[in-house]
Amino acid sequence: METIEREIVAMPRIGDKAPKFQAVTTQGNINFPSDFTNSWIILFSHPADFTPVCTSEFMTFAKREQEFLKLNCQLVGLSIDGLYSHIAWLRTIKEKIEFKGMKDIEVKFPLIEDITMEIANKYGMIQLGESSTKAVRAVFFINPHGIIRAIIYYLLSLGRNFDELKRALIAMQTADAYNIATLADWQPGEDVIVPPAGSCGVAKDRMETEEEGVECYDWFFCTKKLSLEQVNHPPKIK
Ligand code: BEZ
User: Per the CB 3.0–4.6 Å rule, which of 107, 108, 129, 216 could disulfide with 62?
Assistant: First the structure.
């Protein structure tokens, strides 16, 4: 098997502060993440403007932007193309592309130009085994304190699932608000795990005391109900 030798590049990880940068975008200059304080951010990269998978992703994200804004989450895109390419591509999307019932789609969230790849490299979006000239499909979920909470990477050929991005965002916000964890394939309104992973001793006590509303499958696996209403109206976190 061929081995590829390459320099090891430090990449931000879950729990790290989101690396700061200044950038030129289709919505003007930004200071990241400070311009987005008090909000969650999804910072995502795409390989290139004027490509089909990216076009379908941008149309989908732009169409659904309001759903993310309602969840207090702002979207910020990036590719290692220049501003004029971004502007021309977004104009083409708006004026010419009709796809899956979507048309006249205006991308209102900022799209960062990163010709120098400085930001893409800072965020580990250039993965040399995949491409040295295009960013992979990275998604960084950053909380209102500027901390990276989740990262997803896809290769170039795989379009993202925006229902999953939304589900992950709601799950993280719910876990923070109620100190719970969410199960495989969890959807808002379904039972949640108590206490959060890693505190099994408490779960053991729970099983013994048969706390109301808590159902235990074994000493390490207890769930409780959390209504859609509670998920939709979480208590404010300080
Ligand atoms: C696309 O978005 O269609 C794409 C971009 C780069 C490589 C492969 C596909």
Answer: 107
